[in-house]
Description:
- The structure is a homodimer.
- By secondary structure, chain A is of the alpha/beta class.
- Chain A is 28% helix and 26% strand.
- The first copy, chain A, is built from 5 helices and 10 strands.
- Chain A has helices spanning 29-40, 80-92, 113-119, 154-160, 175-190, and strands at 2-8, 41-42, 45-46, 50-56, 64-69, 100-103, 106-110, 123-131, 143-147, 165-167.
- In chain A, the strands form 2 sheets. In chain A, strands 6-7-5-4-1-9-8-10 form an 8-stranded mixed β-sheet.
- The interface between A and B is large, with 38 and 38 residues.
- Chains A, B: This is tRNA (pseudouridine(54)-N(1))-methyltransferase.
- Chains A, B: Belongs to the methyltransferase superfamily. TrmY family.
- Chains A, B: It catalyses: pseudouridine(54) in tRNA + S-adenosyl-L-methionine = N(1)-methylpseudouridine(54) in tRNA + S-adenosyl-L-homocysteine + H(+).
Amino acid sequence: MISFLIIGHTASTDASFSLNDLPGAGGRMDLLCRAIGSSLFLSHGIRQNITCDILLLGQPHPGRIIRFSGNEIRNLSPDERNIASFIKKGLAIPAGKKFREAGPGLSCRTGTLADMLTEQKYAVLDESGIDIRKVPDEDLPKNFLLSDNQNFSDDEKNCTAHLPCFSLGPAIVHADHAITLLLNEIDRRESGWI
Amino acid sequence: MISFLIIGHTASTDASFSLNDLPGAGGRMDLLCRAIGSSLFLSHGIRQNITCDILLLGQPHPGRIIRFSGNEIRNLSPDERNIASFIKKGLAIPAGKKFREAGPGLSCRTGTLADMLTEQKYAVLDESGIDIRKVPDEDLPKNFLLSDNQNFSDDEKNCTAHLPCFSLGPAIVHADHAITLLLNEIDRRESGWI
Lengths: 194, 194
């Protein structure tokens, strides 16, 4: 299993955010939707071995985590609006400290970045890291942390300073593009294309 | 300059398609929006050296081409809804056989795949091609043709059979993901990362 965790610094935690304004009222929810799409979708199917978590830090309940599980999710389409409707479903259930199911392959909990880092070992995807193509297979972890359009905050930097950090290329790209590039590198290694 | 041409086999050519239903009423317009986004957006800016054309083959006027020019486009945001609103603007102007401006960096014309192939030399991005990482710099063209979620039709295959064909990896991915992978390969070569 491979997992992603994407921080949405301004992403709404109010289940009633408008599907007609994902960047504004949703707090750049569009970006998170595309990141979920990139992590889960193949041309004609869903990647079964992926879990994609988004950490929503916007108001009114900063610190909600929504999990999409590729092997269980049903009826997800790759357009932003459809993915956002799943996020709304996740936000609509009462959230506690453990993941609670909001539907097949969709669950929600409360939590912080520090919580997630305690529970699982991550590598950071960031332009400051080592070129992913040069990382030996045995050093490539299975869990990856990304930020949205904002840089990591000082607190987040302190939390993640000890983590391995990988770069996908010379250009600074959106989180969803970084995920596509990482999965391609993993696909290639697993299929002997390198 | 690098250019993309993406065929939207069912994409609406009626400027009044609903922004609330890009996959259905728009005829998988969501997919084209993401392809435009992947071709143009960096994390904090627009790729100035990219032109992205979409060939819309849906009703009521199949054969509209909308061009997004990275060096001139203004106020474009990466969310599907915003990009779709530019496509609507492009479709709203009267179209002739030559590109006509619908706004800065946005233009529209009528045309077919055969027209485009006559005017410019393309390579096809398709899973059946040669691994892009193995293509020498001198064999890497500047113009790339992709299909949407549908395979190339028989007519399109006949038109493109003589073109070089490149694959991005072992997994069959969405058009927008293929564009991201291709641009990363070009970025790496131009920056000496390979």
